[in-house]
Specification:
By secondary structure, the chain is α+β, with helices and mostly antiparallel strands. The longest helix is centred in the first third of the chain and has 29 residues.
């Protein structure tokens, strides 16, 4: 974060670009370390939700031209049932796809948090925002997914520009989370 803030202060474009590249590389290394740590903690078999989210976000790098920041908090592999996890992955995929197709962003952050009895996703970018006119079928699909699970989905402008997509759904009580796949 300190390096990102410093990059904004650098006046020479080539120096700023080099600094941003180094930041992206550090972010990638941190993600790889986190993914490895969580993979070691996940039981053998299919990759956990956390690892699938890391892979999905990392796969967006080629289309975006930069690596999105990723923040994962809480018991994603232990508290989120498979069906809800599948919905979450589809929403992340659609959110990143919207950034690629519409936002003209230079930075994107994907945050997923399990806190208490809620799973919350935020996909934020520094792009041009949601145009007043245009199709809303993708956002409608995300809202319907959330509502089908008893949750909500909103998308709107960020205070400092860009867009924030927020998707949040309730989770079953702790003992029931692993029963539903």
């Amino acid at each position: 974060m300190t390096l990102t803030a410093a990059a904004r202060l650098v006046e020479r474009p080539e120096a700023s670009a080099r600094l941003r590249y180094a930041i992206d590389e550090l972010d990638g290394t941190i993600r790889e370390i986190r993914s490895t740590i969580f993979a070691l903690q996940t039981p053998a078999g299919a990759p956990g939700l956390r690892a699938r989210l890391v892979a999905l976000v990392e796969s967006a790098r080629a289309q975006l031209g930069f690596l999105p920041a990723l923040r994962l908090d809480g018991g994603l592999d232990t508290r989120v049932p498979g069906g809800i996890g599948d919905h979450l992955l589809a929403v992340v995929r659609e959110g990143l796809s919207n950034v690629v197709r519409h936002a003209r962003a230079t930075r994107t952050t994907v945050s997923v948090c399990v806190e208490g009895s809620r799973l919350t996703l935020a996909v934020e970018d520094d792009g041009i925002g949601i145009p007043a006119q245009g199709r809303r079928s993708g956002l409608l699909n995300l809202r319907e997914r959330a509502e089908a699970l008893g949750g909500s989905c909103t998308a709107g402008p960020r205070p400092d520009g860009g867009t924030c997509l927020r998707w949040s759904v309730p989770l079953p009580p702790p003992g029931e989370a692993c029963d539903e796949d």
